[in-house]
């Protein structure tokens, strides 16, 4: 593995028999200093004691120095350094991994204040939507996997729903209306989802989870690189819209990296939700502001749509991979795609094959088979064809064996070989966060407003940015360039929820939590999560490499492998030799971003215990936190 990544300087976790006598939190920030070789001390007892004292002092000074440097970096208002820092956090109690360092810190503070993983995940999730408002927010929706330390687990489906007046032909002749404007907006689900999670598992009062984001929005949000670059993409639109202009260009000029942004009306909305509970979002005056605003722009969302929305609390679907239980979400999320891919590669002996050209080829072939299966997923509502038997078949080890029998070690095949039934839906945007607490409760959330800034509509009184999730439905009547028709399982129906690429997952080993992960990045989400799991359990990558090493992606169509720059030449050439068309994916293009936390078993002062690690993907500027 050392030949494919330069991240091996990050210390690996101690062995199970090691005692953890260090500080509660260790944060390693690249570049990591090279430690000196241990020196044997051959002197009398007095000299030995002096040497030990000197080493201890130097160690403490180095720890203090690097802690200070990390703190200064994380909280500095200056961002002249273009380097993306790659950070591994090791902690004794719990960890939070999000795409925004401030939000990781807020999640950890909730844990310190006595909250559990669900509390921390909710607080961090609201925070991410407040800062990185281009990717998620209370005007959007998503999925949340939760596993309690007692073994109970739930998936909360808070995906946006189609309004009652929606129908499958509503975008005929105007397909862009599903992306921009009032007709693009589905009933937002995030607040209902967080409310359902809190009702099931929450420990701290609801208002305590919302208050940190109220303070941020009111006292100022530092605009960092990712938000600044995405604001710039839509500068003309924002400057022309009074609601947006008030927030992102208060002085007539678009805010830039290093500026402070104030979301005052949004903070008032959060304050009402904090004091009155999650239901306040779906009641007047918030609901009427949203409905009236959309109606004035040709929208069809109604007060009844808002009032009737409910998050779905479901049993997760479960699979097994190398003796570990994998928990993920049901359709319309892409959890079934993740389990199908894992089932396929489990029988390909990737552990012995290793991260080699052949191993990479097998990984890509599994992605192609699973992507074909994804075309048959959808949310079932009354009146739809029932495809649940087919989805159940795709999740079996027997189906995986059939797919493996059609994988060659020497060559790849055209897309027809993998048997997709319908056209592909391209998803966009999203955020992901992962949390584990000291008791072993874990939460994994993927949330989104879909395209950057959703429908590009901000309701001015509430400050809420509204999703364009209706674009994730299939639109009938048009075949793609490969003559694949739109999926009958993903056509619009009232109250239906569109297909999603989200795949939040929790992995359990011997009855105990081990790993929580997920990704943002649209259609690249499920392949990024899949590859992260393979790297962990087959190829033995340390947790930083699991997240940061360059990735592969294939979604069957387009018929090429996306290879992130930095993948070794041997891997690239090996893929080409097997007939893969390779597209080198530069760092400047949007990618998937993985957030992961892991608990290890060990011993501390003679007792069996565990410690945790967290990594947030530097591709989106993320930094994890722990305590």
TrEMBL record:
GO molecular function: glutathione hydrolase activity; leukotriene C4 gamma-glutamyl transferase activity
Protein source organism: Saitoella complicata (strain BCRC 22490 / CBS 7301 / JCM 7358 / NBRC 10748 / NRRL Y-17804)
Predominant location: membrane
Membrane topology category: Single-pass type II membrane protein
Catalysis: reaction(s): an S-substituted glutathione + H2O = an S-substituted L-cysteinylglycine + L-glutamate; an N-terminal (5-L-glutamyl)-[peptide] + an alpha-amino acid = 5-L-glutamyl amino acid + an N-terminal L-alpha-aminoacyl-[peptide]; glutathione + H2O = L-cysteinylglycine + L-glutamate
Family label: Belongs to the gamma-glutamyltransferase family.
Subunit-level organization: Heterodimer composed of the light and heavy chains. The active site is located in the light chain.
Name the record gives this protein: Glutathione hydrolase
Bilayer-spanning residue ranges: 52-73
UniProt subcellular location: Endomembrane system
GO cellular component, one term: endomembrane system
Alphabetically ordered keywords of this record: Acyltransferase, Hydrolase, Membrane, Transferase, Transmembrane, Transmembrane helix
Keyword Acyltransferase found: yes
Any GO BP annotation: glutathione catabolic process
Catalytic residues, chain numbering: 430
Coiled-coil annotated residue ranges, if any: none
Protein function: Cleaves the gamma-glutamyl peptide bond of glutathione and glutathione conjugates.
Annotated pathway: Sulfur metabolism; glutathione metabolism
Residue segments, region Disordered: 1-24
InterPro entries per record: GGT_lsub, GGT_peptidase, GGT_ssub_C, Ntn_hydrolases_N
């Amino acid at each position: 593995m050392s030949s494919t990544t330069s991240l091996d300087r990050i210390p690996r976790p101690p062995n199970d028999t090691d005692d953890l006598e260090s500080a509660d939190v260790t944060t390693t920030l690249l570049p990591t200093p090279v430690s000196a070789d241990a020196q044997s001390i051959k002197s009398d007892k007095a000299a030995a004691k002096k040497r030990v004292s000197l080493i201890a002092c130097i160690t403490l000074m180095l720890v203090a120095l690097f802690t200070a440097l990390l703190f200064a970096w994380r909280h500095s208002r200056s961002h002249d350094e273009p380097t993306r820092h790659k950070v591994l956090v090791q902690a004794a109690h719990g960890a939070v991994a999000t795409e925004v360092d401030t939000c990781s810190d807020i999640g950890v503070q909730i844990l310190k204040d006595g909250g559990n993983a669900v509390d921390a995940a909710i607080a961090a999730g609201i925070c991410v939507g407040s800062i990185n408002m281009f990717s998620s927010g209370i005007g959007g929706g998503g999925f949340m996997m939760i596993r309690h330390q007692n073994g109970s687990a739930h998936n909360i489906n808070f995906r946006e729903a189609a309004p009652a007046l929606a129908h499958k032909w509503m975008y005929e002749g105007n397909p862009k209306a599903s992306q921009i404007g009032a007709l693009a907006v589905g009933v937002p689900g995030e607040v209902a989802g967080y409310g359902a999670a809190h009702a099931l598992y929450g420990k701290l009062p609801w208002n305590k989870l919302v208050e940190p984001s109220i303070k941020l929005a009111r006292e100022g949000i530092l605009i960092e690189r990712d938000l600044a670059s995405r604001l710039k993409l839509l500068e003309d639109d924002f400057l022309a819209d009074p609601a947006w202009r008030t927030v992102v260009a208060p002085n007539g000029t678009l805010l830039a990296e290093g500026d402070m942004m104030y979301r005052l009306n949004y903070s008032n909305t959060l304050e009402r939700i904090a004091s009155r509970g999650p239901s306040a979002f779906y009641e007047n005056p918030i609901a009427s502001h949203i409905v009236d605003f959309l109606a004035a722009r040709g929208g069809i969302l109604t007060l009844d749509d808002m009032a009737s929305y409910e998050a779905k609390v479901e049993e997760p679907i479960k699979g097994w991979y190398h003796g570990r239980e994998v928990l993920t979400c049901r359709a319309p999320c892409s959890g079934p795609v993740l389990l199908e891919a894992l089932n396929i590669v489990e029988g390909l002996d990737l552990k012995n094959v290793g991260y080699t050209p052949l191993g990479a080829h097998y990984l890509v072939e599994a992605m192609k088979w699973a992507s074909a299966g994804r075309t048959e997923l959808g949310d079932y509502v009354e009146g739809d064809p029932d495809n649940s038997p087919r989805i159940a078949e795709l999740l079996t080890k027997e189906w995986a064996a059939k797919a493996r029998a059609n994988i060659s070690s020497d060559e790849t095949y055209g897309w027809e070989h993998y048997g997709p039934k319908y056209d592909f839906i391209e998803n966009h945007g999203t955020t992901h966060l992962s949390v584990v607490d000291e008791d072993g409760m874990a939460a994994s959330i993927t949330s989104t407003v879909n395209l950057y800034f959703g429908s590009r509509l901000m309701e001015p009184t509430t400050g809420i940015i509204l999703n364009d999730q209706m674009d994730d439905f299939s639109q009938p009547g048009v075949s793609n360039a490969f003559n694949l028709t739109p999926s009958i399982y993903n056509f619009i129906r009232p109250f239906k929820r569109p297909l999603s690429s989200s795949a939040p997952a929790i992995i359990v080993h011997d009855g105990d939590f081990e790993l929580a992960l997920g990704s943002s990045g649209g259609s690249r989400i499920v392949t990024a999560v899949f590859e992260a799991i393979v790297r962990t359990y087959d190829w033995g990558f340390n947790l930083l490499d699991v997240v940061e090493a360059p990735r592969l992606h294939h979604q069957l169509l387009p018929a090429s492998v996306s290879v992130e720059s930095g993948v070794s030449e041997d891997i690239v050439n090996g893929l080409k030799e097997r007939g893969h068309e390779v597209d080198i994916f530069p760092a400047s293009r949007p990618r998937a971003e993985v957030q992961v936390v892991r608990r290890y078993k060990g011993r501390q002062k003679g007792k069996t215990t565990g410690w945790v690690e967290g990594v947030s993907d530097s591709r989106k500027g993320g930094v994890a936190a722990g305590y």
